[in-house]
Amino acid sequence: MRGAALKRVPLDHESRMRDNDHQALRLWLRILTCTNLIESAVRARLRASFNCTLPRFDLMAQLERHPEGLKMGELSRRLMVTGGNVTGITGQLVKEGLVTREPLLNDRRANLVKLTPAGSKAFNRMAQEHEQWVSRLFSHLPERDRRQLHLLLGALKTGLTNH
Amino acid sequence: MRGAALKRVPLDHESRMRDNDHQALRLWLRILTCTNLIESAVRARLRASFNCTLPRFDLMAQLERHPEGLKMGELSRRLMVTGGNVTGITGQLVKEGLVTREPLLNDRRANLVKLTPAGSKAFNRMAQEHEQWVSRLFSHLPERDRRQLHLLLGALKTGLTNH
Lengths: 163, 163
Fold this sequence. Notes:
The structure is a homodimer.
Chain A: H1 3-6, H2 8-50, H3 54-65, E1 70-71, H4 72-78, H5 86-95, E2 99-103, E3 111-115, H6 117-137, H7 143-161
Antiparallel strand pairs in A: 1-3, 2-3
């Protein structure tokens, strides 16, 4: 490179970059670990208390938020956990009388999926307990820390969405 | 708080509880959303740059951290992302000369999986870029916020692990 002093510039820059990279990677692995720990706790409790899988709960949650119904494709896109087979879960819920799946009037190739009143009732019973489990999972964090975490993740999310 | 005011105590307590529950649930959904956003960005880049899936990258990352090799069961347990078929991915990596899968001397029913030197080289090439992608995904957060987030998630993780 140029001159003795300059020699160290690329190295310093590089090692600072590497520190930033390592820090970001550690942060990402920590987010992922927390997600996995919470997910597996919720999964186990849904199974034990309601014999329900997380993808099935997730699918019903999306439908509860959309009483007007969702097309199968929209439903798939909105799911927050992976590993579920949307067609299979929906078919099972139809059989149990918890959702309806009707062809759309203006697009007969698309099906509109809706919770039935019984489905909504079943979901809300689970959702109430689910909310308490989640609350307990976070209860060791002081409220101030939870609020701070919420804010920081909000900033992260905004940046990620605009990426 | 005793006398007329007491009447309001159970209600206040209950509504505070409900607020806490809602807050925890919102926090959990935000963590999950951030995880999903980062995961799908990384997934897309791995695919585009290396024609590699995230579960395959994850599997190679675990092997890189364990040069002594891992049994199939250990390998499965250590994976951080879902959706991969460990046996299928391992078989494919063996075919490509990137890992070896050998029966253990003292337990011939168990296979020990190791990265080959070529596998290690291929992984490190991807890992370097992966680290930079992740770094960029977090780059809109000031360093102070990243550090703060790391600390708060550390406290969350500790609580979850001791749960």
